[in-house]
Amino acid sequence: MKQDSIGVAVIGAGMAGRAHLNGYRTASTLYGLDLPEVRLVAVADAHEPFARDAAERFGYQRAETGWEAIAAAPDIDAVSVVVANHLHREIVEGLLAAGKHVLCEKPLAPTVADAQAMVDAAPRTDRVAATGFTYRRSPAINAIREQVAQGALGPVRHFNGHYWCDYGFDPDAPMSWRYLGAPGTGALSDIGSHLVDLGEFLCGPVRSVRGTVLSTLVPDRPRALGAVVGHAAGVQVSEVRERVENEDVATFTLTFESGAVGTFSVSRIAYGLPNSLGFEVFCENGAATFDLARAAEFTIAGPGSPDAVNGYRQVLAGPAHPYLTRGLPMDFPGVGYGQNDLFAFQARAFLEQIAGLDRLPRCPTLADGLHNLKVLDAVVAAADADGRSVSVLQSTRA
Ligand code: SOE
Question: Which of 88, 122, 184, 306 is 20 to 30 A from 102 via CA?
């Protein structure tokens, strides 16, 4: 569907919302000149000062305080939903009903039922309805995926992944939506959703889960005084402490449909590690590793290395790998890139899909977001299964 221009908006002016705002602003500078004009129209946030600051900072035409104004705006075609997870369903369904293209942050919703309703709402429109698994846009992770898919390393035997953050290590870090909800809506949903999606991105669908441990190590937190954004760093707090309802740490073992094993460790109280995502993929004839701390590279080991030079080789992501040719102003190995660039690649892919271009991998669908939640549901169920294996419900995975 060719459009003269695409008007974009972001609902949520917090930490990740700003990454989406910047992504749309940068998208036109990437790859080809065949993208329709991108109009930076609006930012919405319930806390108006956040919306106004973000609109001015990222060059958007106006600030709004409610998602309804975005849904009703005739000059807006595509919207990112980047707010607390429990708000996703109402907003996504409202935007789809208003005829907008939607890119919703992970996890799609707090429950499988909510996500299923969102998936059911999507076919009633011809809009693009996507889930934002941003790490799928990592050039280095895609390079590893290509090696695995081409069979260069042989079949996968064991995926070991961690996603460790430290935004919750301080008991006096203020309460926020991330700490409220049923078991599985804490660290497992917030950051485990990324890691589980990457496990399947690299190793194929999950068959079953076992041995889950969900632990809450910080039982209560002080109530925030004033608006909270992102991980609420530096926000004043009251004397009143509120109970933390969900998990700080989640560990579990899963089996992929391929028979490969997956071992997962997720934490939001990992002292000194603000955003530590990493994994190893051990295969029959080799292995590859990734560490977000060195985002623009990966290591790989395979047959044929003489004993004198055995071990893992460092590979610098560059034009030989996805997304990077004309994906950065300086696009040669060693220049490096970071997580913010992945939001730009994601924004470009979303806009290209809306424009009917097919240069980049399509965005994960709402059904992919639903499937991710079904796996997380099985992870939670395996916490009470006395070590028995819990199968993942057949997803509606597209
Ligand atoms: C990546 O942006 C991310 O994992 C977010 O998706 C989480 O919500 C945040 O808590 C940590 O960073």
Answer: 184
CATH classification for the domain delimited by 5-135, as one of 3.30.460.10, 3.40.50.720, 3.40.50.1400, 3.40.50.1000: 3.40.50.720
Q: What distance in angstroms lies between residue 16's CA and the mean position of ligand 1's atoms?
A: 7
Q: Whose CA is nearest to atom 4 of ligand 1?
A: 191
Atom of ligand 1 minimally distant from the CA of 167: 10
Pocket of ligand 1 (CB under 6 A): 16, 165, 190-191, 194, 275
pLDDT digits (tens, 9 = 90+) for 187-228: 999 999 999 999 999 999 999 999 999 999 999 999 999 777
Output the pLDDT for position 14: 94
Residue 163 phi, psi dihedral angles, 5° rounding: -135, 105
- Tokens standing for 25? 């602003």
- Residue 190 CA to ligand 1 center (angstroms) comes to 6
